[in-house]
Specification:
Blueprint: E1 2-6, H1 11-22, E2 26-31, H2 34-45, E3 53-57, H3 58-64, E4 68-71, H4 78-85, E5 93-96, E6 101-102, E7 105-109, H5 117-125, E8 131-133, H6 140-144, E9 154-158, H7 161-172, E10 178-180, H8 187-202
Parallel strand pairs: 1-2, 1-4, 2-3, 4-5, 5-8, 9-10
Antiparallel strand pairs: 6-7, 8-9
């Protein structure tokens, strides 16, 4: 398996690339600056046995992926990036991990007219390209800290069940549990959890940071 991460030089994308490489998944880091992506891949490869990471420009990364392409860019560049890679996504799954945080206020979201970033991605790409929303609620710090396991469950949503199951299986290779949270419209709730977590994690009244969420079964 070879997964492309578009925006892989940012904190979230970099952390995900590290986690996937640790799990033995080959990763192509895609960036507008292909040289920067390649340099980061070389740096990260020194952390693992084998050469699991490579880096290049965005278009080349999408083309190099076997099937799964992860979008990890600031929401300000979300739709433009999707328009750029849309012609290259036939036969692939787009995993949208972007949260539309309010400009200048990470403790709030500013949802697009479609209702969520995940739904906006599906609107841009059309129904023929499956979009799956995932990894919205795990912090970049957690992803990058390989000395500790991921401390939360993952909620996965999308309109294509087969694509969703493939993404859930990939998520579980990170050592966590992924749950089918429903259709793409569920992203309205899932993405909105992120600013709540940010608010809690920076609160002086909360004695921890970088918290996530867990789906807790009953104790009886």
């Amino acid at each position: 398996m070879k997964v492309a991460i578009i925006g892989g030089t940012g904190p979230q994308g970099k952390g995900l690339a590290k986690r996937l490489a640790l799990a033995g998944v080959d990763v192509v880091i895609g960036s507008r600056d292909g040289d920067k992506a390649a340099a980061l891949a070389d740096e990260l490869n020194s952390m693992f046995d084998g050469q699991h990471l490579s880096g290049c420009d965005i278009a080349s990364a999408v083309q190099a992926s076997d099937e799964i392409v992860v979008l990890s860019v600031p929401f300000s560049g979300h739709n433009a990036t999707l328009e750029q890679i849309k012609p290259l996504l036939n036969g692939k799954i787009l995993v949208d991990i972007v949260v539309p945080l309010a400009e200048g206020n990470p403790k709030a979201v500013s949802m697009p007219p479609e209702g969520s970033a995940t739904e906006a991605a599906q609107a841009v790409l059309g129904d023929e390209i499956p979009v799956v929303g995932a990894l919205h609620n795990v912090s970049a710090v957690t992803l990058n800290n390989l000395d500790a396991p991921i401390n939360c469950d993952l909620l996965v949503c999308g309109n294509d069940l087969a694509a969703k199951k493939k993404v859930m299986a990939l998520c579980e290779r990170l050592g966590t549990t992924a749950y089918n949270a429903g259709l793409a419209e569920s992203a309205r709730c899932i993405e909105a959890i992120t600013p709540i977590l940010i608010r809690l994690n920076i609160s002086k009244e909360v004695p921890f940071s970088h918290a996530g969420i867990r789906i807790c079964p009953p104790e009886h």
